[in-house]
Design goal:
alpha+beta; OB fold (Dihydrolipoamide Acetyltransferase, E2P); 5-stranded mixed barrel; 5 strands; S1_domain
């Protein structure tokens, strides 16, 4: 009997390891059911689900060129098909997401302008060059660093190094 991917067969568990179970198939060949293919839920200990000598229905997942046979107990079980979700209508070009629902699990972004001063709704912001942005960033950064240095130096006695 030839074993082909996709076929369902009755087999007998011949060995159990920490990573799966070996199942003897009709015709004497043996395949492996990986621990992830034993049940639909998480399997911590395969011995809770299978024992040597158990008769199991398996589905052939793959047959490799070197003769290894990959099996699945989980995929062999007939369960009702989940109803497919209806297709969503594509979002029109340029349409934004509904308010209060950020995309991709991200936090909503802050309003333009950093929240300082009054917001000017529906007014375009003046274009700022990269150089202007960079110089503003460097100025803010230097101010923060100097404040931090003053605070840490006062805690250390003003000399910069701790004396032991």
């Amino acid at each position: 009997m030839s074993i082909e991917a996709g076929s369902k067969l009755q087999g007998k568990v011949t060995g159990i390891t920490h990573f799966g179970a070996f199942v003897e198939l009709p015709g004497g060949s043996t395949g492996l059911v990986h621990i992830s293919e034993v049940a639909d839920n998480y399997v911590k200990d395969i011995n809770e689900f299978l024992k040597v000598g158990d008769e199991v229905l398996v589905k052939v997942v793959n047959v490799e060129s070197d003769g290894k046979i990959g099996l699945s107990i989980r995929k062999a079980q007939d369960r009702p098909e989940r109803p497919e979700r209806p297709e969503r209508a594509p979002r029109p070009e340029g349409a934004s997401r509904p308010a209060g629902r950020p995309s991709g699990g991200q936090r909503p972004s802050r309003p333009q302008g950093g929240g300082r001063g009054g917001a000017r709704p529906n007014q375009p912001r003046p274009a700022v060059s990269f150089e202007d942005k960079m110089s503003r960033f460097l100025k803010d950064s230097e101010e923060r660093i100097s404040t931090l240095k003053r605070q840490t130096e006062s805690k250390r006695g003003g000399r910069g190094a701790r004396r032991g």
